[in-house]
Amino acid sequence: MKELRIGVVSFEHMHAQSYTQELVKYPEVTLVGIADENEKRGKEMAATFKTNYYQRYESLLEQQLDGVVICTNNRDHAKVSIAAAKKGIHILVEKPFATTIADAHAMLEAAREANVQIMNAFPMRFNPNVIAAKKKIDAGLIGQVLTITSINHGKIPGGWFIDPALSGGGAVMDHTVHLGDLIRWFTGSEIKSVFCESGELLHHKGIDDTGLVMIELNNGVSATIDCSWAHHTNYPIWAQVDMQIIGTKGVIELKAFAQVLHLDDQTNQRFEDIGWNETGDEGLIKEFVQVCATGRTPLVTGLDGLRALEIALASYESSRTNEVVSLT
Amino acid sequence: MIRIALVGCGTMGQTHAHAYTSLGEAKVVAVCDIRLEKAEALASLLGCVAYISYEAMKEKADYEVLDVCLPTYLHCRYATDAMQDGKHVFCEKPIALNLEDADLMVKTAKEYGVTFSVGHVLRFFPQYQAAVAQIKAGRIGTPALLRTTRNQAFPGWSWENWYQDIAKSGGPEVDLAIHDYDWLLYNFGPVKRVYAKNLGPEHPAQMHTLAILRFASGAMAHVEASWALPKGIEFRTTFELVGTDGQLCYDSSRDCPLKTQLGSDEEASLFYDNPLSDEMNPYRAELKAFLYAVEHKTEPVVTATEAIAALQVALAAKESAHNGKVVHL
């Protein structure tokens, strides 16, 4: 088995934790180092994962890497991805792919020129329940898909997530992309138009936290996405991803994170839902490791990332103008 | 590479066969079933030889492990035959219908120096494992009240409808509730007394058992297992584990990630799925653990002694239901 040299750039996004935990499970993977502008966090994580710490991502990218996982703030995805592509390194970049269409195009172009793979981190594509739903749809079990209702609720994160300059936006940016990607995947169709109502209605943190998106696809399917950070602090679980897919022959009700134990914690006076199945991070990293080993096209690409970003940005435009935004 | 032969290609044989397809450390070299078409279907899945009789398979095939997926009343006969032939044996649960057969299996395994384990697979289900991990982390304090359910429609699809013949299946205590008995004994210690009721022979297609267990630790359990639900109803399992500092609950219907509703002009149907990757598949995990024990000559995760302890609780529940008395163990 050929050694794969992989680095992680930044733990700004907390998903870096689970991605790195998955990476180190593979005997062929050498975790070459962790780069993080935040020295305290970077050194802590480097110690946790018994690897080297680099303050500058450029120094980590010098280390003959086969692959890099990028979990910076959203704005910096482009800068780090382009630098990695120029070094000939395969890329897994956290979602959203970028914060602007221009950045996304520049990232795809850099990867194409350097002949490296760029993969957008859409772990829901690897969630076992989502995969099972996709198989049922592809097998024609519910006939032709007619309409989809989807919800991705969560709690409001802090830090750079609620600074639009670094995140590109709030709940709409953070959550629309997951479901937008799954709707494209389930239907095999691209988006024709987007309408969105969004705003800061719940948490008073200076950023959009509530959003309802209505999509029309080229094949005539209509779909809604509720991307709100709707869970209050004491909600028993962070993430919720639900989809109802209505077809000509039947209906699929998917609750991707329903496999939980319900804990009534008397000591801390709270309820907690504890997930016990794989989330999707496992399959996502497995796929990236295979992409690094073989150089083949990933199951979810940078182009998928761009398409999902287009939905999020069109949603913001629609929110501003109160008009339907056409994507064709 | 451990070479395996599988006897019995019904529901459990098929479940095991699918689990073996993703286990690199083992190769199924032969399968057998008196219904040749069942054996041939699995043989083509596994790329091995199908036999119509155990005797023919024993004579022609070369294997180290026999996986017994036969109806319960046949476990002892085939397991002990294989052991006497020097094969390691993995036997579906329950170990046997009675203690005499179970003891003979244990004695034979010991005499011939082979590894023997029983398919108490509940220990390998991720939700049950997650609950144990939370309890071990102290999240509910000292376990006090444990409730489990395992309810379904009567499995009328079985070969010769053998489940319905209590002399062959042991009924819902020995076949169904034994999953929970084993899990409870393994995680919460020995049981000192049992009181139970069941639906009697006047309801042949609606068998049902209710048991109250008292543990040596002081904890108590309510175990319900049913073959009394209407035909077409989904299999449902639940647990509710209450301790001095908290409570853990799971309900396979409520906590189900994927429901599919299909309709026609005549009727509608609802299917529940609980998708798991190969790595999370409990049947694969139990077989992997058994093969590890064979290869490394270690004690299996599920020992025959534990399988007998679970059978004792099941037989006590049956006895209590039969004579209306409390059974002390």
Key structural traits:
heterodimer, A: 328 residues, alpha/beta, Rossmann fold, Dihydrodipicolinate Reductase, domain 2, 2 domains, seven-stranded mixed β-sheet, six-stranded parallel β-sheet, globular, B: 329 residues, 15 strands
What structural category characterises the helix and strand content of chain B?
alpha/beta
Summarize the amount of helix of chain B as a percent range. Answer: 25-40%
CATH class of the largest domain in chain A: Alpha Beta
**Distance N to C terminus of chain B:** 42 Å
Question: Total strand count of chain B, please?
Answer: 15
Straight-line N-to-C gap of chain A: 45 Å
Q: Quote the average pLDDT of chain B.
A: 95
Number of domains of chain A: 2
Walkthrough of the structure:
- The complex is a heterodimer of chains A (328) and B (329).
- Chain A is α/β, with parallel strands linked by helices.
- Chain A has ten helices and 15 strands.
- In chain A, 35% of the residues lie in helices and 27% in strands.
- In chain A, the strands form three sheets. In chain A, strands 12-11-7-10-9-8-15 form a seven-stranded mixed β-sheet.
- In chain A, helix 1 crosses helix 9.
- The longest helix of chain A has 20 residues.
- In chain B, a hairpin with a 4-residue loop joins strand 9 and strand 10.
- The model of chain B has no long low-confidence stretch (mean pLDDT 95).
- Chain B is globular and about 55 Å long.
- The longest helix of chain B is centred in the C-terminal third of the chain and has 20 residues.
- The chains are: A alpha/beta (328), B alpha/beta (329).
- At the A-B interface, helix 6, strand 12 and strand 13 of A face helix 6, strand 12 and strand 13 of B.
